[in-house]
């Protein structure tokens, strides 16, 4: 499903309590078969219930941290996703971690050929399986409701995986501490993939900088590249460069 339709449809159903196929046809200027296809896809993700031609929001939509965050600072996240995708090329293996910012890379991923996506994120898995031209490697493990992703304690399943590029989101990023978060939850899968990739990028919109939560995910010395949006202050780029971190700012 095109991203421009996904959020429009979900927001419409949320605001109007329900929607018919004809409502979605008029809302998005699409055909009836396409509207039915989109509603079935959202139903398969358990974000809506779609029965007898009527769609309503499910409780999973409201309780899903990912579904809530996907709409926060959406314009900034789209900028980062677009810029991040410019580092991808044909015939590459790419690790994309869980997180709403990372998800926006997928808007542009279909432009490349013979791409392999490695991920532990269920929203990303759900998108990729709808596009059989993309190769998919799923990292399993313990389910995490907050990130809608799997965390693996089985290091052996990661031993032979060496992505060309990895993209990992950030809850907060501090110039002294690195990437931080507000829970003690381990993100071992993302850390290992980040370390083993030829190139690794932290994705952080400008609202995430200078925020230090109690728990460190990626120490500052492990970070080389950060992709951010066009609201990031140019004066701060040199500060980060001085400690050996490249800031890639969307223009």
TrEMBL record:
MF-aspect GO terms: DNA-binding transcription factor activity
Domain HTH deoR-type: 8-60
Keywords: Transcription, Transcription regulation
Record Pfam families: DeoRC, HTH_DeoR
Origin superkingdom: Bacteria
SUPFAM superfamilies for the chain: NagB/RpiA/CoA transferase-like, Winged helix' DNA-binding domain
Keyword Transcription regulation part of the UniProt annotation: yes
Domain annotation DeoR-like transcriptional repressor C-terminal sensor: ranges: 73-230
Name of the protein in its database record: DeoR family transcriptional regulator
Originating species: Brachyspira hyodysenteriae ATCC 27164
Upper classification of the organism: Bacteria, Pseudomonadati, Spirochaetota, Spirochaetia, Brachyspirales
């Amino acid at each position: 499903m095109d991203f421009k339709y996904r959020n429009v449809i979900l927001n419409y159903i949320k605001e109007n309590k329900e929607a018919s196929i004809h409502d979605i046809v008029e809302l998005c200027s699409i055909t009836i078969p396409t509207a039915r296809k989109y509603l079935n896809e959202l139903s398969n993700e358990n974000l809506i219930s779609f029965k007898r031609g009527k769609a309503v929001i499910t409780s999973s939509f409201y309780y899903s941290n990912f579904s809530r965050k996907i709409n926060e600072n959406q314009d900034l996240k789209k900028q980062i996703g677009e810029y991040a995708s410019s580092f991808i090329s044909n015939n590459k293996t790419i690790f994309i971690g869980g997180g709403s910012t990372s998800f926006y890379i997928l808007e542009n991923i279909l432009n490349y050929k013979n791409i392999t996506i490695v991920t532990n994120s269920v929203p990303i898995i759900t998108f990729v399986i709808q596009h059989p031209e993309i190769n998919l490697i799923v990292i399993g493990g313990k389910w995490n409701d907050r990130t809608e992703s799997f965390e693996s304690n089985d290091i052996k399943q990661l031993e032979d995986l060496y992505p060309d590029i990895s993209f990992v989101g950030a809850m907060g990023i501090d110039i002294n501490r690195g990437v931080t978060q507000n829970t003690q939850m381990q993100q071992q899968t993302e850390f290992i993939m980040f370390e083993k990739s030829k190139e690794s990028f932290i994705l952080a919109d400008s609202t995430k900088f200078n925020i230090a939560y109690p728990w460190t995910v990626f120490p500052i010395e492990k970070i080389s590249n950060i992709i951010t949006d066009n609201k990031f202050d140019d004066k701060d780029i040199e500060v980060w460069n001085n400690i050996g971190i490249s800031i890639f700012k969307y223009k």
